[in-house]
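Appendix B, record 7
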Amino acid sequence: MNRLSGKRALITGGTSGIGLETAQRFVAEGAQVLVTGVTPASIEKARQILGDEVPVVQADARDLDAQRALAERVREHFGKLDVAFLNAGVSDWRPFEDHTEDSYDRLFDINVKSVFFLTQALVPLLTNPSSVILNASNSAHGGYAHSNAYAATKAAVGSLMRSWNADLLTSHGIRFNAISPGPVDTPLYRKLGIEDPEQQAAVLEAISSGIPLGRMGKPEEITEAVVYLASDASAFTVGQDLILDGGQTIF
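Structure tokens (predicted):
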């Protein structure tokens, strides 16, 4: 424990799923944390779970002005920043022919464009050394039906992670790494648009059957990797994309 003692950390998309689990773990590991969310309900729930010491800020990832305002809020609250886990994103799996310009733009605006410009706004705040972790996806490492545009956004995230090290590691001391989770048992996978619990359970079972370990990941298993990349134990880990998917991409 206390692997993150004294570190000031931003977690975007920190009000549910992997983000919320990571925020709780960061606090337990000694970090000062600020998280973002979008919906009032998730923000209120996160505030109840995380307590008064953790600011939970509303920030729409598709609104670049909101992203720049977030960086200013971080500056006002922390002064400087040691860790950023850029976790906010959306998933939209559909047949290639069903995508529209709006659905495509939404994916790239939230998953890529907002990450690009939020990082740009955070660079002056990040300490030397510091760690930035991006949430990508194992879909960028394999070919999965209906992943098309979504997978492309996550491949872009991985590419940014690698090139940002070339841009900023030597000059600013910022280490960039990524995690690429496979299917994880979070609310994201329970919002499948299926009302019938039995049918939803069947879909989740089908997803699990395609994973060599025979189950979906647990949020805490992903969080463990994020804590490592945020901590000084990973000081020599640069430009890595950790695939956390129970072996799904190797079969």
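Remarks on this record: Strands lie at 8-12, 32-37, 56-58, 81-86, 126-135, 174-181, 241-244. The chain has a mean pLDDT of 94.
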